[in-house]
Fold this protein.
Amino acid sequence: MRVLLSVRNLERYFNTSHGVLHAVENVSFDMEERTTLGIVGESGCGKSTLGRTILGLIEPTDGDIYFEGKNISKLSASERLPYRRQMQIVFQDPYSSLDPRMSVHDLIAEPLSIAGIDKNSADRVAHVRKLMDTVGLATRFEHAYPHELDGGRRQRIGIARALALTPKFIVCDEPVSALDMSIQAQILNLLQDLQENLGLTYVFITHDLAVVKHISDRILIMYMGSVVEQAPVDELFKHPLHPYTHGLFAAIPVPRLRERPQRFILKGEVSKPDGKPGCKFAPRCPKASVECFSITPELREMGENHMLACHHAER
Amino acid sequence: MSKLLNVKDLTVQYETDETIIHAVNGISFELEEGKTLGIVGETGAGKTTTCLSILRLISETSGRITGGEISFHGEDMMKKSELEMRKIRGSKISMIFQDPMTALNPVMTVGKQIGEVIRKHQKCSRLEAADRAKEMLTKVGIAPERCSDYPHQFSGGMKQRVVIAMALACNPSLLLADEPTTALDVTIQAQMLEMIKDLQKQCNTAMVLITHDLGIVAETCNSVGIMYAGELVEYGTAENIFERAVHPYTIGLFQAIPSIEERTARLKVIPGLMPDPADLPKGCKFSPRCRYSTRQCKTQTPPYCEITPGHFVRCFCGDYKEGE
């Protein structure tokens, strides 16, 4: 399959009053068309910043982003415009990402009017209805306002807005975390159907491992701005190599009664990524040795398309 | 073992200008000393309202407990005066809220906040209270020197530890935990659950744990109640719910969550939405979304039947099981 998106050595730093924060550090990956890349990590690990930097909503500090082979990270705003239409985002919170004073029709028509599509109002109405149909929103909600709808329907509006300009690539930033269990399943199924029917490529950002396992082809695990492990989904769940990945997997509560062996619980908490050399996970890592605190582990290939940044783990 | 908490036919309503919202509609459960009951349900199912009514904390301006009995240590909670309730809250029954960021006073050191609870309920000097506060902090895994820090100096996980220290400071016999780990990351959530379980064992505290995560329930609870539209649709031991679930909603919930252990191409969805508690459907509240619903389900309220000892289901399917 064709590679749609390549990210090379992407970095994004923020200047804060406590010094430079390395939100995204040296991230590289490739994505094939019609696949889903899951980005997993805890709050503050830089997963949303990474998603937004790819879309150009945040300027990268350094590094390159190639979309269909063209480097789009160094383009001017007007040169970037056609690529923005191809790359869209679905936000986490359907309660705060929609303007409460716009009706469902207006919300979905907004991207169309910005792009100057369907200037004729009858065409516009038909187009919006078609989009509503695609995401499973009944047309009777056309004139409703977001507060009249539940979270699942609101998220459908968010998805319709993202689909309006027929993009190839969508960043889904925790699209189901704010939803209830039974609604979450409806939205996940919708996203999968859309991918199949419209040939979409997703970056799926989440902290929920069960969800990411369900929807992704490949998973990238982030810790404090860096990628610690990257592998195809089945391989990763069969042979997790990084101690952090082990810790994450062990922490997931499984909805089944069973005797658990002594649980491996990660100690400590995430601190602020300041860009000092050494493995960022070392202070919490049960396997950490002296070199972990001084030498930053490079992401290396471990076979089976499995990349790992750790001095210790062996396949 | 003796029954610590006994809730029978609890009904709570909220009134607005135009409508009556049926938040909790006749739920019954009991809890033994030192045990944990998990209450699972989606937003608006009435989980939090149930907990608040045990503490009689439903705001009087809009809500009312319209029926049912709550007995705690054999005493009728509904007959207690406000003054008596104040003595119970925080000392015999305490509650942990979902969001540790808003549960703490930002302009008071954490040591003082923990000490405040102790001084309110036990006769002791300021110094003694401060010592007890330090002891509690150590118990929840925070260095006692940090008692003079303010909440903003702690991370989310640490704040929740402080909240737990405060809740357990007076050795309550019942802890109501309302989604205590929802706002936390998974690795911190695991630390927190492990700690709560440990402390619970040490102090023999019973717990009502509200959550929407069936995984957390499997790991911590002895008995489970599944709530839907203000009713307990299924209630029983953890084994009953996880291995022999009967109610279509319970089964649907299990199928709707993606599994970490096996991969399925598509998730099985419960169609439709939770009903509006101001306008509940007739008959079985779940019937509009249930694929087994019959005409009977749409017109008659299904009985709350005990299909095996201790396993209750509110569904006509319970009837058939009994008939078999």
